[in-house]
Amino acid sequence: VRWVDEEPSPAGTEERRVQFAQLLGTAIANADGRDQLRAARARLLTQGDEARRHMVRDLHDGAQQRQVHTIITLKLALRALRAKDPDAESLVAEALDHAQRGHAELRELAHGILPSVLTRGGLRAAVDTLVARLDLPVEVDAAVERLPAAIEASAYFIVAEALTNVVKHAHAKHAAVTARVEAGALRVRVRDDGIGGARPDGSGLVGLADRLAVLDGQLRVESPADGGTLVAADIPVPG
Ligand SMILES: Nc1ncnc2c1ncn2[C@@H]1O[C@H](COP(=O)(O)OP(=O)(O)O)[C@@H](O)[C@H]1O
Ligand SMILES: [Mg+2]
Questions:
Q1: Gap from CA of 146 to ligand 2 centroid (Å)
Q2: Which protein residues have a CB closer than 5 Å to ligand 2 (ion)?
Q3: Is the minimum distance from the CB of 208 to ligand 1 under 6 angstroms?
Q4: How far, in Å, are 127, 177, 178 from residue 170 at the CA level?
Q5: Is any atom of ligand 1 closer than 6 Å to the C-beta of 210?
Q6: Which residue owns the Cα nearest ligand 1 atom 6?
Q7: For the CA atoms of the chain, what is the radius of gyration?
Q8: How far is CA 145 from CA 43, 117, 128, in A?
Q9: Closest listed ligand to the CA of 227
Q10: Over the stretch 48-72, which tens digit does the pLDDT of each residue have?
Q11: Whose CA is nearest to atom 17 of ligand 1?
């Protein structure tokens, strides 16, 4: 560091003081960064537990209930069949309906946890699938190679949360997603032409920033009050 070797002179002392202040600023920023990282980790842990509780509740109230109904209805159908009761057919139809709904609910739940298309096909394929499910025109330019799983998952969650926000809050006519690896980082951008005014302290956006902080990445949200929102994430790619 240059200021250590400088000649002590009145001007030099002043310069040293300024530079020392800058260094101190960096040190404080680092300590701040450590505290922030610790807070981010704690929030991620809490969120993970909360997500598990949510999942168990969804399973219990959804697919598990459907299975119970399927089993009970099939038992009734079997009894009716044995008794040559004409109700048997409608009972089998009812059981089939419960089974099919349960199957659909399980698929939705699994998709919400982590879409298999992401693991199989990577970010591009997963974003295409996500966009196809939305009732909004979204332009996608995300031709990236396969990346480490944690990076792909984080990038996917960013796009998913940002696009969910566009649908929920933005009143936008159009959105665009870009992803590219540039200068050692995966750069993900989600833009919309909606009303703007996104608050970066909401649980969704804070969750994204936490995830990125743990990966040494960064989240930037630009959302002026006169409209349009940009969610920009940069994630370092190792190697
Ligand atoms: N694309 C957007 N356009 C307009 N407002 C947005 C957008 N994204 C987020 N917001 C606003 O910022 C808030 C915080 O977003 P977020 O952290 O995702 O929380 P949540 O979606 O759970 O409300 C939202 O409640 C919404 O008011
Ligand atoms: Mg949200």
A1: 27
A2: 165, 204
A3: no
A4: 19, 15, 18
A5: no
A6: 198
A7: 26
A8: 30, 15, 15
A9: 1
A10: 899 999 999 999 999 999 999 999 9
A11: 202
Burial of 18 per CB tally in 10 Å (0-12, 13-18, 19+): exposed
Say yes or no: CB of residue 154 within 6 Å of ligand 1.
no
pLDDT at 200 over 90: no
Q: Can you spell out the DSSP letters for the chain?
A: -GGGGS---HHHHHHHHHHHHHHHHHHHHHHHHHHHHHHHHHHHHHHHHHHHHHHHHHHIIIIIHHHHHHHHHHHHHHHHHHTT-TTHHHHHHHHHHHHHHHHHHHHHHHHHH--HHHHHHHHHHHHHHHHHTSSS-EEEE-------HHHHHHHHHHHHHHHHHIIIII--S-EEEEEEEETTEEEEEEEE-S-----TTSHHHHHHHHHHHHTT-EEEEE--TTS-EEEEEEEE---
Total-model pTM: 0.80
**C-alpha closest to that of 194 among 132, 137, 130:** 137
Angle between helices 10-59 and 88-113 (to 10 degrees): 170
Ligand 1 pocket mutation, candidates 43, 134, 158, 165, criterion most atoms within 8 A of CB: 165
d(CA 85, CA 76): 10
**Whose Cα sits closest to atom 18 in ligand 1?**
204
pLDDT of residue 178: 98
